[in-house]
Amino acid sequence: MGRQKLTGNPRAWFDIDRAKRFPGTVRFDQEFGTWRSRATGSIHAHEDLYLTASGRWIIHWWSLQQGNFNPS
Known about the structure:
Elements: E1 3-6, E2 9-15, E3 20-22, E4 26-29, E5 34-37, E6 45-51, E7 57-63
Antiparallel strand pairs: 1-2, 3-6, 4-5, 6-7
């Protein structure tokens, strides 16, 4: 069992091994010559979705830009 902790509540977690992952998709942005996330519209911020065994949806957000930890 792989426990994945959730941000905001140190006691909250879900079993990542039993969750179904829906990876984020990207599209090529010709203007910038790089890949852009379809979920966020950003070239830096990306998202994946997880559906836990209990039926809860979890968004996993990360940034490729160093020092950027704010998903908004």
